[in-house]
Amino acid sequence: MAAIQNTADDAALTKDQKLKEAYFTASQNQLIWARFKSNRTAMIAGWCLILMILMGLFAPFLSPYDPTISGRDKDYENGAPQIPKFWDKNGFSARPFIYATERTRSIATNFRWVTKVNPDKRRYMQFFPKGWEYSMIDLEWDLPGTLFDVDIKTLTFNTHLFGVDKGGIHLFGTDASGKDIFSRTLHAIWTSLAVGTLGVLIAFVLALIIGGIAGYYGGWIDSILQMITDAIRTVPPIPLFMALAAFMPDTWSSEMRFFAISVILGLIGWPTLARRIRTHLLTERAQEYVLAAELSGASSGHIIRRHLLPSFTSYIIVDLMISFPYMVRSETALSFIGLGLKDPVNSLGSLMQSVSQADVLLNYQWYFIPVLFFIAFILAFVFVGDGLRDAADPYSGTKK
């Protein structure tokens, strides 16, 4: 028995030694991932974020109807959400179904059209039906001039995840023009992701260049660049967009407006990250490995690109994750007040425009469903960003 106990103790000791060895030999990325996985809130938010990104990426496949066509279902305008059922008073069904709807006029509503549900008529759901045609890669840009015009459509399909044998199905209901809110919400998620990604990419490149030059060279170059950075930080975004909206031609296409808003968000979103990069480089440029690289004849660009920036790559990624929801929130706010994207482009901000109407608050509460997705979308990014920030900081879990 003693021998068996000693063997078990040796095995446990060997396991602990392996864990310690793995910890001390792990790379920075491995340590960050290990600390991030221990944060349950961040992990749940990460899975929710991945789910919403996939929903936006495959929005055409998941959407039963084209979200840009008004009057898609004229018999179900301002219709309530239709929840699939498996049983009702008429019995059980192995196939999910919804009830048929009928439009009638009545004296009670001053002879206005009213949509009524007929529980005696079922509409059975179908999976992978044929419907409207879409392209998974659809790049159509009509920018001023002909040099940057792009029209690429590949991977064209007409198969969708679900539908019904007759009529239409609207999981989130419809709006006043008969558009399917479920389809519009999925496409709005992808639009907000695209705007945020392009804005963050522009801000990221500008921050790396300006912050890197200011932090590495210092002196009068740093002073001039910091004056420019502080000047841009003081520009109020809402008045700026109001002025730009007044000068935006009405003839601009939705793609051109999308591109302009993304560029503007990127041009005013880089100063914060640039100052963080500058602060880090001011500290790191005096290190011995930088001096060794200079003595070996390395150029300034090579030192910044190959030595200084990789030393805090994880922190840059964290800053990008944290700044992404602010880009999305800015686009949503601009679209909500009418200065951003407009129909036929579906964005979370444009879908939220009608929520402020009194008639919607009283009678059409399903218009708030995109608002819930927007809140979940932003919170997921915030929790993931906070989790990455804590994971990238080796002293975040220490007690003072």
What key attributes describe this structure?
elongated; MetI-like fold; alpha+beta; about 400 residues; about 15% strand; 6 strands; 2 domains; single chain; 4-stranded antiparallel β-sheet; about 55% helix; two-stranded antiparallel sheet
Average of pLDDT: 79
CATH fold group of the largest domain: MetI-like fold
Report the span from N to C terminus: 45 Å
Count the helices. How many? 15
Q: Determine the fraction of residues in helical runs and give it as a percent range.
A: 55-70%
Q: What form results from the Cα inertia axes?
A: elongated
Sum this structure up briefly:
The chain is an alpha+beta fold and about 400 residues long. The chain is about 55% helix and about 15% strand.
Write the layout of secondary structure elements.
Blueprint (H helix, E strand, L loop, with lengths): L1 H24 L2 H10 L2 H18 L1 H4 L22 E4 L2 E15 L7 E15 L2 E12 L8 E10 L2 E3 L16 H37 L1 H15 L3 H11 L6 H14 L3 H14 L3 H8 L4 H9 L4 H24 L11 H4 L6 H6 L5 H24 L8
Antiparallel strand pairs: 1-2, 2-3, 3-6, 4-5
Helix pairs in contact: 2-15, 3-5, 3-15, 5-6, 5-8, 5-9, 5-12, 6-9, 10-11, 12-15
Give an account of the 3D structure.
The protein has 400 residues and is α+β, with helices and mostly antiparallel strands. The chain has 2 domains: 74-176, no CATH class; 182-392, Orthogonal Bundle (MetI-like fold), CATH 1.10.3720. 56% of the residues lie in helices and 15% in strands. The protein has helices spanning 2-25, 28-37, 40-57, 59-62, 181-217, 219-233, 237-247, 254-267, 271-284, 288-295, 300-308, 313-336, 348-351, 358-363, 369-392, and strands at residues 85-88, 91-105, 113-127, 130-141, 150-159, 162-164. The strands form 2 sheets. The protein has a 4-stranded antiparallel sheet, with no helix packed on it. A hairpin with a 2-residue loop joins strand 1 (85-88) and strand 2 (91-105). Helix 2 (28-37) crosses helix 15, helix 5 packs parallel to helix 8 (254-267) and helix 10 runs antiparallel to helix 11 (300-308). 28% of the residues are buried.
